[in-house]
Design brief:
CATH topology of one domain: Rossmann fold
CATH class of one domain: Alpha Beta
Number of helices: 10
CATH architecture of one domain: 3-Layer(aba) Sandwich
Helix content: 25-40%
Distance between the termini: 33 Å
């Protein structure tokens, strides 16, 4: 998938973060009056969500100029939110300038985890918090159901599992990279997060056809996508509406109280 193409316009900007995500974040940190950097922000969905949770300011960073354009458009009129185009390992943000660094669905794109976490270490203020949210291979393997539609992707096209195994981070690798970056690992939790409610089969079909927010679907041909949609239709049956959930792992690490030895 080309994250720089104009063909993805709006693909990662149109949803709102669910309350299940907000509850997971609030169990980790109270962002009230804190400064947040949303690294790999996409269309700014979670940048806006952090602001809604009470953050004093949010800066969203993404390497895709199309994503940043979408984020700015979707966030027009929102106060204390800014976006700029930069790489996750070289954000250009000042040292110690934020209290929370949030990286959602980012690290499986990073070829160098320690470099990405070292950049988070650099921009975090003393005692700041890094929150990393991504899917592990174990998250991907959750069985298919009307609540976990993503499971059908791999049940119908097992070859997609190979793609996922290649790109999904292992918990131990993430933990090691956090420590290498100088952060102090605090916790790892698995969560089921509501992605969307579908009121009808037509609504679900339209979403799958658009491949919005599901980059793995770009590995399927149009014919294969139709096969997948048919299989999901049979699997879901007459259960409407349905609430789709995705499974995630969240790693939390903290900047030490001292900045001595900062890179």
């Amino acid at each position: 998938m080309d994250f720089h193409s104009s063909h993805i316009e709006g693909s990662y900007a149109t949803r709102d973060a669910d309350a299940s995500w907000a509850n997971a974040m609030l169990a980790i940190v109270d962002p009230t009056d804190l400064r947040v950097a949303d690294i790999g922000c996409g269309g700014g969905i979670y940048s806006r969500a952090w602001r809604s949770l009470g953050a004093a300011s949010v800066v969203g960073d993404d390497f895709s100029s199309q994503m940043i354009a979408d984020a700015r458009k979707a966030s027009a009129g929102a106060s204390s939110i800014s976006f700029w185009c930069a790489d996750a390992i070289n954000t250009g943000l000042p040292d110690g300038s934020v209290d929370i660094v949030f990286q959602r669905a980012l690290i499986h794109h990073l070829p160098d985890l320690p470099a990405g976490f070292s950049e988070a270490f650099r921009i975090l203020a003393p005692n700041g918090t890094l929150i990393v949210q991504d899917r592990t291979y174990e998250d991907v393997l959750q069985p298919a159901s009307p609540q976990h539609l993503r499971g059908y992707f791999f049940e119908i096209f097992p070859r997609l599992l190979h793609l996922e195994k290649e790109r999904r981070p292992a918990t131990e690798d993430v933990t090691t990279a956090l420590l290498q970056a100088g952060l102090q690992r605090a916790n790892t939790v698995s969560v089921a997060e509501v992605r969307r409610m579908y009121l009808s089969l037509t609504e679900l079909q339209d979403d799958l056809h658009a491949r919005i927010g599901c980059s793995i679907l770009h590995a399927l041909t149009d014919t294969e996508l139709e096969q997948l949609i048919d299989a999901i239709r049979i699997g879901v049956g007459e259960t409407w509406p349905i609430t789709e959930q995705d499974y995630w792992t969240i790693w939390t690490a903290r900047e030490p109280h001292t900045t001595k030895g900062r890179r």
